[in-house]
Every structure is written in structure tokens, then in C-alpha cells.
């Protein structure tokens, strides 16, 4: 590919013109890097053209490119993701997790591959070249559409697919770890092990300072016990970490999961809680209609019981789900009170978002209800006290339904 470009500017862009030039240069650099990686991978020159920006983030550039010339049988288009290299030149932990996650699934049989196939990757440029899944709608688009039946079907398909993802990766932690070692393992394999313990220890003091809510020792102990999920050897499988609606494509081959920047192997109850909270790592989450959560949980359970028959027993599943729900509610409340910019948390894409206070009140209300059903009075009473504190600060709140169900 012949390239002619002006020398890069220094400092901050002067205006829109220079900003556009810098963005164009990044796109061009990504295409050139992808051509180089593919050529090394296949042993012959491969030409890419017509890059289309798919909307990455501050951390990454994501493109769709056309395969203009190749001596091999490649798809007509490919998806390319390149991470911005951090200061000091160290490979981002998120790139390592994502590269290893796609390698793990690409090694599986096609019917067990719940994400795009990985064609090539390169740690030198923090680059991934993957299968292009086309213009399929995301789960978020279904939920923000105007067809309740289509949204319901998409949610149930996603829940079943999440269960299949867990079942197909059962017992593959050693494979995942071996792939991590080849790419310089991140400081923490599971991102939750970093903030989770901090949040559990810090939140009671924050609740008291911000809302005047005291946390009884019994409720605090219950939260501390949830940290056991981070270490338990049971019910472990691959987790996308951020399975928010915009990270799931509804294709004619079923749901395909995207964005494995936090991909890891851990206790799958943290993912199962996405069905009951719902979408706890995401601040764009709205409410679901009555009965939807139970239907989603049943769909997930039908898939995972093949590998974990004990999860058919409510006495086994129920307490673990409550622990995961409690963990997520405490973690996200701590994030709300400590992270200056909530845009940094989870994903949300470009869809409208409810007020953050609505999300918090709904999560604590849901936790109180779950704890009441499980007869865990200490957790229920504390959650109800937090709801009262939030209501005193923000007024009466009500989380609206996703537009498709409104």
C-alpha cells in the first residue's frame, strides 16, 4: 500500500482539521499493521482497502476492512481492532485478555465458537484481526426498539447462549492459563479481584458518610463472604466480563459475544447475576418486565446443567446467585461513589441511559427482595436502609422499562 502523508503535528490538535488528520492517520496505521500481521500469518502479501470505522473507544480503534487482494481464501471483509499503546510501551492487559479469549474460542469446534473467529494477532502492535460478523443488530438495539416480542426472543437467546458459552468452556482454565503465559499474563487474571475486595471493605464507610446509612456487622460479613466466589474452584468457566447488551450481536447463527477486554475464567455466578440484576457492569441498564428474569435464568440453567447437574438444585444455585448479586450491588455502588466519570465503567454504547440514581435504587431494591425470599434478613434490612438513604438524597426513583417493553 503506497502512503503519502504530511508529518504528524505536535501537541494538541489546533482544530477539527488536524483532529480529522490524526484520526485518519490512526486508521491508516491500523490498516497497514493489519496487512503486515496477515502477511506474516499466511506467508504472502494481503491487501486491505476501504476501512470503515465501527466505533472503538479511547482505548482502541475498530475497523471493518475489505480484503482487496489475497492468494488465500479469506472472507470478503474482516474486523480489525488495534489498542492504543500505553505510555512506556507495555502491552495492555486488556489486549492480552482479549487475544487469549479469542484464541481459546477459535480452537473450539465451530458450533462451540460463540464469538468471531480470530485470524491473526500481534503483541507488537496490540492488534487483532477477526471475522466480520456483518451488520447484525445488537441486543441493545433490540431492547431499544419497538418490538416487545423480538426483544423477548433476543433476551432468551442471549441467556441460552451465555449458558452454552459456560458449558463449552468448562474445564478449559488450564488451556486459558497456558495461552496467557505465552503473551505475558496481566497483573490480575480476573479484573474483579482488583476492585471487589476494596469495594467490600470501603463501602460501609461511604454509605455512612454519604447517606447516613449504618452497615451492621452481619450485613458486612455477608458481603465479605461473597469474596469467596473469586477463589472457589467450583462452577468455573469463561466469562466475557462485560456482557452488556451492546456487546452481543443477534446473528442468524445465534448470539455472538464481543469485547473480551476483561475476558477470563472465573466463577460463572458473576455472569449468571447478569440475568437477575440485570447487566450489573453497565450503567445503561433499564428494567425488565415481570417474569423475564425467571425465563432468562431458566434458559441459562437448561444449558449449564449438562456440565453442572448440581445447579438444578435451588438449594445450590440460590445462595450462590444471591452472593453474586450482593457482590455486584456493593461493587457498583462503590464505583458510583468513587469513580469521577462513570463513562469509564462498563459499556453502554450510544444508547440512551437512565439516571444513575434510578439504577442504584433498582439494584438495592432488587437485592432486598432477593434476600427476603432467601430469608437472609441482615442483607435485606441493610438493603432496605440503603434504599431509604438513596431516596432521601435523590427523591422517589423508578427505573423505567427498556423501550421495547414500555
Can you walk me through this structure?
It comes from Actinokineospora globicatena. The structure is a single chain. This protein has about 400 residues and is an alpha+beta fold. Helices cover about 45% and strands about 10% of the residues. It has helices at about 15-40, 95-105, 140-145, 150-170, 175-180, 190-210, 215-225, 270-275, 290-305, 315-340, 355-375, 375-395, and strands at about 45-55, 60-70, 75-85, 120, 125-130, 235-240, 250, 255, 265. The strands form 3 sheets. It has a 5-stranded antiparallel β-sheet with strand order 1-2-3-5-4, sandwiched between helices. A hairpin with a 4-residue loop joins strand 4 and strand 5. Helix 7 (about 215-225) crosses helix 10, helix 8 (about 270-275) packs across helix 10 and helix 10 runs antiparallel to helix 11 (about 355-375). The longest helix has 27 residues, at about 15-40. It is globular. The N and C termini lie far apart (about 50 Å). Residues about 1-15 have low confidence and may be disordered.
Summary, kept brief:
The protein has helices at 16-42, 93-106, 139-143, 148-168, 173-182, 192-211, 217-226, 269-276, 292-304, 314-338, 356-373, 377-394, and strands at 47-53, 60-69, 77-83, 118-122, 127-131, 236-239, 248-251, 254-257, 264-267. The protein has 406 residues and is α+β, with helices and mostly antiparallel strands.
Q: Which band does the percent of strand residues land in? A: 5-15%
Shape: globular
Mean pLDDT: 89
The amount of helix comes to 40-55%
Question: What is the helix tally?
Answer: 12
Radius of gyration: 22 Å
The main β sheet shows up as: 5 strands, antiparallel
Strand order of the largest sheet: 1-2-3-5-4
SSE sequence, one letter per element: HEEEHEEHHHHHEEEEHHHHH
Sequence stretches where pLDDT stays below 50 over 5 or more residues: 1-15
Query: How many β strands by DSSP?
Result: 9
Cα separation of the termini: 51 Å
SS content category: alpha+beta
In oligomeric terms, what are we looking at?
single chain
Amino acid at each position: 500500500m503506497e502512503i503519502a502523508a504530511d508529518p504528524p503535528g505536535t501537541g494538541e490538535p489546533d482544530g477539527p482539521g488536524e483532529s480529522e488528520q490524526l484520526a485518519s492517520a490512526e486508521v491508516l496505521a491500523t490498516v497497514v499493521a493489519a496487512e503486515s500481521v496477515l502477511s506474516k500469518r499466511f506467508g504472502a502479501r494481503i491487501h486491505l482497502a476501504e476501512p470503515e470505522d465501527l466505533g472503538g473507544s479511547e482505548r482502541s480503534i475498530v475497523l471493518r476492512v475489505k480484503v482487496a487482494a489475497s492468494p488465500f481464501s479469506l472472507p470478503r471483509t474482516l474486523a480489525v481492532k488495534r489498542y492504543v499503546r500505553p505510555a512506556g510501551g507495555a502491552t495492555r492487559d486488556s489486549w492480552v485478555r482479549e487475544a487469549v479469549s479469542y484464541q481459546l474460542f477459535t480452537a473450539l469446534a465451530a458450533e462451540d465458537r460463540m464469538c468471531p473467529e480470530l485470524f491473526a494477532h500481534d503483541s507488537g502492535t496490540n492488534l487483532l484481526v477477526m471475522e466480520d460478523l456483518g451488520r447484525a443488530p445488537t441486543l441493545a438495539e433490540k431492547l431499544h426498539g419497538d418490538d416487545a416480542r423480538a426483544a423477548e426472543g433476543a433476551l432468551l437467546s442471549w441467556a441460552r447462549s451465555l449458558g452454552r458459552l459456560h458449558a463449552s468452556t468448562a474445564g478449559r482454565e488450564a488451556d486459558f492459563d497456558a495461552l496467557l503465559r505465552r503473551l505475558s499474563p496481566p497483573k490480575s487474571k480476573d479484573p474483579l479481584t482488583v476492585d471487589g475486595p476494596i469495594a467490600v471493605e470501603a463501602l460501609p464507610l461511604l454509605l455512612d458518610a454519604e447517606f447516613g446509612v449504618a452497615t451492621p456487622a452481619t450485613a458486612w460479613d455477608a458481603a465479605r463472604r461473597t469474596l469467596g466466589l473469586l477463589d472457589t474452584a467450583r462452577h468455573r468457566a469463561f466469562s466475557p466480563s462485560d456482557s452488556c447488551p451492546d456487546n452481543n450481536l443477534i446473528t442468524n447463527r445465534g448470539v455472538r459475544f464481543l469485547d473480551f477486554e476483561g475476558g477470563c475464567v472465573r466463577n460463572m455466578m458473576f455472569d449468571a447475576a447478569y440475568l437477575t440484576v440485570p447487566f450489573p457492569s453497565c450503567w445503561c441498564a433499564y428494567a425488565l418486565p415481570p417474569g423475564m428474569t425467571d425465563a432468562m435464568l431458566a434458559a441459562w440453567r437448561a444449558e449449564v446443567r449438562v456440565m453442572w447437574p448440581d445447579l438444578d438444585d435451588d438449594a445450590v444455585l440460590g445462595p450462590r446467585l444471591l452472593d453474586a448479586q450482593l457482590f455486584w450491588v456493593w461493587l457498583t455502588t462503590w464505583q458510583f461513589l468513587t469513580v469521577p466519570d462513570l463513562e469509564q465503567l462498563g459499556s453502554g454504547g450510544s444508547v440512551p441511559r437512565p439516571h444513575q440514581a434510578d439504577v442504584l435504587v433498582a439494584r438495592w431494591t432488587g437485592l432486598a427482595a432477593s434476600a427476603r425470599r432467601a430469608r437472609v434478613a441482615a442483607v435485606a434490612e441493610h438493603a432496605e436502609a440503603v434504599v431509604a438513604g438513596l431516596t432521601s438524597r435523590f427523591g422517589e426513583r423508578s427505573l423505567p422499562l427498556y423501550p421495547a417493553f414500555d
